[in-house]
Predict the 3D structure of the following.
Amino acid sequence: MRALALGALLALAGPAGAQTIAPFAGEHADFTRVVVRIPPGTGWALTPDGRERQLTITADGARFDLAQLFQRIPRGRLAEASAEGPVLSLGLACDCPIRAWEERPGLVILDITDAPPEVALPPAPPAPPRRVPPPDPIAAGRAAGAALARALPPPTPPDAPVPEADPRLETLAQDLGRSIAAAAGQRLLDVAADHAATGQGVLPDAPLPDMPPNMRIATVLDRPDPDAPPVATPPALCNGSALLDRLLGHDPARFTEDLGRLTRALYGEFDQPDPQSQLDLIGVYLSAGFGAEARALIDNSPDPVAGRDFALGTADVLEDRASNSRMRLAQAIACGGAASVMAVLAGAEADAIRQNADQLALTFSTLPASMRGLIGLRLAEALVDAGALDAARIIADALQRSDWVSPGALALVEARLDRARGLPVDAALRLAHEGDASSDTVQTRLDLALQTAAPVPPEYIAGAEALAATARDEPTGPELMAAVIRLNARSGAMTDAFAALDRLESWMSGTGENRRLLGDLRDEVWAAMASNGTDLGLVEAVLSREDWRDPALLPQTRRALASRLLDLRLATPVEALVGTLDDPEARVLRARAALDGGDGTAALDLLGEDDSEAARLVRAAALERIGQHRAAGDEFATLGDTGAETRAAILDADWRRVEGLAAAQEAPAPAADLGPLLGRPPGHAEIALTQPDTSSPPADAAGAAAPAGAPPSETVPAAAAPSPLPDPGAAFDRLGLVRRSSTLLAESERLRGALAPLVRPPP
């Protein structure tokens, strides 16, 4: 039948003025049906009697094509057919009655049924002789008068006089209009644009023919609350949203039964779908979560589907498919009912979600249990992301009473709520004890571990990596692998982090978003290597890999790598890492690399006028490298490094500066525990001259020491005490060599005393 209908449609699609009509027929048990498709609005007529019937259509230029008429029927009832222009002649094989009607505009149906069986009637008895009554003159006169009355034309009534305009009525109409306008402005009357006229006025049984059809009058007594403002008219985009509540109200427990019943009732005669059965079947699919099947049924419908945009948007939400219908559904969050709930899942704005959070939680609690279990997790997550935590908690409580949600899914909802309330540690512990092995749970637990820096068992990370490998072609796979890479990098397992990064790169195509994700992960891994990696691991990674040269690495990561490599005396990769950077820190690193390569002049050129401490250290070393010891000493003096300044002064043969630095240095503490050397502590006599001798009591005038406990006696004043004679060795020790040698002797003695217990022979 469908193929015949398609052929008929193609036949009707010919050029204008030459319409070809191809009748087709089907054989049934009790009748033969002939279907003729003509243009809608075309007249037709069928002769009523005889075995030769003619179907005539009133279409100019139309002709019949009988090639398909006898393909599916025998010639039992319809024996032959012929056509001439717009006339179709049908030759019947019996005295078969034909029932003809127009099913819908343009579809003419002829049912040829079997002839009724002939019943043999008994012979009728002879009729008695009839007595003819005499004619009635009164009846004959009445018949003649009736025939004469029918022959005469009807009398024409005189024209009614035109009523004159009454100015009082016009004044009354103007006053009534002003009163109605004032009442409407004060919200005492409601003007409804979508109201159909009932034919009655304000008072019962009072017709109001001049009332506009889109207006009604309601008093404050008609409102539930007289003090409340009138109910706002919903926007036009909400038209049909109430139908979604009925579509999502089917019970999935009866899915098999409803599917079989509606599938059988979906297509009627000639493959014409029943609109109501089609709508019910769409609701059965949506209630069970089969969005793709519902969308296919809507797209293939020849007639418009009631609430099409809401049904299509819901189907796309269930399948997580982006479409224009889903975007339109997201704007219907204020429509109420199931449409507002599905609008949240379609991607409504966060502000609108927070404003309608209470109504969303109430509507969700009235949905069927299966639908709550199907969309509850996603709805709770959307509410949490929008900041509507109270509504999300209500939805979580509703899910706890649902048989359609597993305990692991409930734990995931609770963990996300804990995380949103600022309790990530509690959320991680909840998932560790109650969570399941689903990809969402594993992803959330890994994210919480990254957020709280909590340890994760290595076997759990290995399981997450295996789960990511099974979902490599889905969005969850790369997300899981990214979390695994970050955890390995954070814990210092750099070999595992690089291996996982290489595996993820082999999965993903070269799209812009994938390249961005890989670049971010590569930067995080190399940053972790620069801060947490071992020296051996860093050297092995740089020598065995080439992605550290990636220009997408962040500047701070490249500077950190270059600094670590310079500390390891690997200056060659520094230029590749920071050669394109032009900030002061990068120039200092490049100057260090040039200095390690023996080019002090290039290091000075790179430093320029930078006066930071790091730049001054490198500049001083570069000046020493090129032989400018005086300038190097000045840089060391600015940095406060006296030892380096003294070394530079010695190399510059500036002995006066060396003497000044030696005099400014603090003398080392006397090492009295090492014993006297030549009657003095270790060192030159100059050390003894700079410190007063407090080891003996003051002498009296005769030079003898006062006995202990004796009364005080007259002594020589301090001002009159003779000054010590200058030590001739002080002039010799201008370079401080003797002082250094004495310090070395003291350190040697201290080291000898420390090591003596270790080398002492056993008794």
